[in-house]
Amino acid sequence: MSKLLLFGALWWLFGNPFIAILVLLVLLYMLERRFVGLSPSIVRPFRRRSAIAKLKRQLHMSPHDVSAKSELARLLIESRKYTQAREVLAGIGSTMEHSAEYWSDLGTCDLALGRLEAGEKEMLQALEISPRVKYGQPYLRLGETFAARDSEKALGYLQAFKAVNSSSCEAYFRLGTLYAELGKKDEAAAAFKECRELYASLPRYMKRRERKWFLKSLLRGSR
């Protein structure tokens, strides 16, 4: 009812139902992004593309800028351009061999490109240097990768991710999803319940970041 009233007000304001629908959709999208966060950001890909172009120009002028190459590789990984990202990372390996972030990024690329043995080794190298690198994300990536290939190994990695990042609703949701795929219904239900309970206990400033996984867990837990 409230949406119909808002639509009527917009129609009256703009004098055109099509413009009213467009404005209503934009408003709903902004509210969803602000309070829920399930829909993808429209702006982020454009910002990322601009940042990549800027870094490439910077590297054209300063080809040995290691920090710029690291940032470029990170943005390329976010864009799922794993081959390009790996090429960038390959050029700074000798300088960054003691960096956990470097090995994590390299492992992410190799896992995405199907080089599972190399990717797993690189992720474990990152975790050896710093067990809490990127809040335990290497464990999560390994868990996702091996979920369909080696369920026991995947569970081990996801449990490790949960231990490192105990305030992550994502960890409990992914554990529940994997348990469900393995036919372990009781364990899956318990993991989804833990996700919801964890979300309820989080401070307000953290709930915005974790709300997506809470809502997904709520939907899965109600099946």
Helix/strand structural class: mainly alpha
Percent helix: over 70%
* Total DSSP E strands: 0
Under CATH, the homologous superfamily of the largest domain reads: Tetratricopeptide repeat domain
Strand content: under 5%
- The Cα radius of gyration reads 21 Å
- CATH third-tier fold name of the largest domain: Serine Threonine Protein Phosphatase 5, Tetratricopeptide repeat
By oligomeric state, this entry counts as: single chain
Mean pLDDT: 85
Give the biggest beta sheet: none
Q: How far is it from the N-terminal to the C-terminal residue, by CA?
A: 28 Å
The best one-word shape is flat
Q: Any low-confidence stretches, pLDDT <50, length ≥5?
A: none
Structural overview:
The chain is about 80% helix and about 0% strand. The chain is an all-alpha fold and about 220 residues long. The chain has two domains: about 45-165, Serine Threonine Protein Phosphatase 5, Tetratricopeptide repeat; about 170-223, no CATH class. About 30% of the residues are buried.
Jot down its keywords.
223 residues, mainly alpha, Serine Threonine Protein Phosphatase 5, Tetratricopeptide repeat, 2 domains, 13 helices, flat
How would you concisely characterize the structure shown here?
The protein has 223 residues and is mostly helical.
